[in-house]
């Protein structure tokens, strides 16, 4: 192995170091940009959540006032249907059924 002077060795090491530093800086900048982008997205999301919460509170207040006033009509699930005939209802005689078929 050839002998290198300290300066030659140090010079090669600095080249490697600066190359590593450039790569590290690029990665660091990319990570900082990603952090900034994600932070912005988080802030946007929080703003949407605040707006949604404000709208929810307004709708909840309206619903509470409507419930308190008793002004809500019955739901379609509350509708009662007419009584169905039971199975004990007399059946049509078979000769009448044949005429209709």
Mean pLDDT: 77
Coarse morphology:
elongated
Number of strands: 0
Amount of helix: over 70%
Helix/strand-derived class?
Answer: mainly alpha
List segments where confidence is low: pLDDT < 50 over at least 5 consecutive residues: none
The H-and-E topology, N to C, reads as HH
The radius of gyration over CA amounts to: 40 Å
Number of contiguous helices: 2
User: What is the strand content?
Assistant: under 5%
- CA-to-CA gap between the ends? 109 Å
Q: Can you walk through the features of this model?
A:
It is a single chain. The protein is 70% helix and 0% strand. The chain is mainly alpha-helical and 101 residues long. It has a domain at 1-70. The longest helix is centred in the middle third of the chain and has 64 residues, at 6-69. It starts with 5 loop residues before the first helix and ends with a helix. The model has no long low-confidence stretch (mean pLDDT 77).
Report a brief summary of the structure:
The chain is an all-alpha fold and 101 residues long. The protein has a domain at 1-70.
Helices and strands in order, then pairings?
Elements: H1 6-69, H2 94-100
What keyword list fits this structure?
single chain; 101 residues; mainly alpha; 2 helices; elongated
